[in-house]
Amino acid sequence: MSRSNVLIVDDEPSIRIMLTRMLEPLNHAVSTAEDGQRALEIARQEKIDLIISDLRMPRMDGLTLLENLRRDGNDLAFIILTGYGELPQALAARERFNISDFLVKPIHNMDQFLFEVESALSRRLLERQNQTLMESLRQMNIQLEVKVDERTRELLLKNDELQRLSTFRADVLRVLGHELRTPLAILSGYHHLASQGASVQFESLAPRMGGSIERLKEIVERSLQHLKASERTQFPLEPEVVNPSEICDRVIERLSPFITSRGIRLQLPECAFREDCEWDREKMEEVIEELLINAVRASADNSRIDLSIVGDARWVEFHVKDYGVGVAEEQLERIFEPFVTLGKADHHTSGLFDFGAEGIGLGLSTAKMWADLHGGSIVAQSNTGTPGITLVLRVPRRVSSAAAPDEGVGDDGEPAPPSLRS
Q1: pLDDT confidence of residue 342
Q2: Of the candidates 325, 340, 339, 313, which has an alpha carbon nearest to the alpha carbon of residue 398?
Q3: Which of 182, 229, 263, 382 has the greatest CB tally within 10 Å of its CB?
Q4: 5-108 architecture in CATH?
């Protein structure tokens, strides 16, 4: 056994000297104390493996010493020296304070004494090793639980992703199946008339055929954009100096015939943010256009749409607020997913501005993609106190032509501030 530190506690100097000499064959480091108070001080300052203590002593007896040590969390081995008259008291304290053993004074058998000392030290060593192993096992169990939790979360995320992909595939098939069928049916009808030799003035039908062809091209181009969306290098930005209000004015002018035909009131306030920014003009105009188209489709005839722009030295926010039927809270984030539409496929009327009309589910998704490339974001919020939703577009005032920052991070690498309309 390795060398241990043993403390002998007794108020009689002769007993301390005798026990010290008896322990010499074991080659342990032995120190002494004249009472429990001094022994407690030593044990709190030094590493003691075993205390051999008399039961009755002035200032502090052996059991009070042991009680204080256990209260401190000290699990050292402890042997009590007691007379026959004190034996019942020692036995009662044995289980309560985890006493290694007790010896009856006077000690006549040196071999028995040394055996009890070594046994006490061995048991304490085994107990400590067991505690270490149990702690290691506990830590391993904690780590295992953490890994199991991590794997479970990964599986749940993968399951959610598979579910999302499955839903995405169903949305693509459902929406594209309807959207492609309409222009193809028109073109197929014209082809059938021509193959039958029908006398039709095809010059008058050319615009309709061209419209169907353009619609097919739009669907294909939008779909390809989203299929390549993971390769951001496919969409480099071409920043130029632009004015946010001017962009909105241009978009409103383009959409004005469709908006006024339904009696919807929309205009940009004179107090709108009008300082220059550096954006890709074409893409930002498309973002604003998609936000307004969504609001028009969600708005009843003779209603209104509120458009506002606020900004500061670093950020600009566009707010497009409609007063339509709104979107369920749990569906707000899904409206930005490609090919996701919240109505029935047979209600889709892409390219139209009727109340309740729905596109192929790529308008807001495309808008979000362009906002992301500018280092900005788009969020949908349910209106407070009124029906409808508000779409909030937030973009930094300046972006580079290189890869745009991550969403919510400005071009200087700092986190995006909270909403400018707090």
Answers
A1: 47
A2: 313
A3: 229
A4: 3-Layer(aba) Sandwich (3.40)
Among the listed residues 420, 396, 421, 400, the one whose alpha carbon sits nearest the alpha carbon of residue 410: 396
pLDDT beyond 50 at 288: yes
pLDDT tens-digit profile of 9-65?
999 999 999 999 998 888 899 999 999 999 999 999 999 999 998 888 888 988 889
Cα–Cα dist 171/177, whole Å: 9
Distance, in Å, from the CA atom of 335 to the CA atom of 355, rounded to the nearest integer, reads 17
Rounded CA separation 397/103 (Å) = 86
SS3 303: coil
In degrees, to the nearest 5, what angle opens at C-alpha 179 toward C-alphas 177 and 185?
Answer: 90
Cα separation, 126 vs 138, whole angstroms? 18
Residue type (1 letter), 211: G
The CATH code of domain 234-396 reads 3.30.565.10
Q: Between residues 167 and 73, which one has the greater pLDDT? A: 73
More confident call, 100 vs 181? 100
Taking CA atoms, 402 is separated from 62, 238, 240, 411, in Å, by 79, 9, 13, 11
* Interatomic CA distance for residues 372 and 406, integer angstroms: 7
Distance CA 363, CA 159 (A): 27
- Nearest CA to 284 among 241, 322, 255, 253? 241
Entry pTM? 0.45
Residue environment code for 19-36, b if the CB has 16+ CB neighbours within 10 A, otherwise e = beebbeeeebebebbbbb
Q: What is the pLDDT of residue 422?
A: 35
Q: What is the pLDDT of residue 337?
A: 73
* Sheet of 29-33, strand order: 29-33, 5-9, 50-54, 77-82, 101-104
First to last CA, the chain: 72
Positive or negative torsion for Cα 225, 228, 230, 232? negative
CB 365 within 8 A of CB 226: yes
Give the number of other Cβ atoms within 10 Å of residue 269's Cβ.
10
Q: Give CA–CA dist 306/294, Å, rounded.
A: 13
Residues 6+ apart with CB under 8 A from 76: 43, 48, 49, 50, 51, 69, 124
- Average of per-residue pLDDT values in the chain: 77
Residue 230: pLDDT band (50, 70, 90) is very low
Strand (E) or helix (H) holding 154: helix 110-195
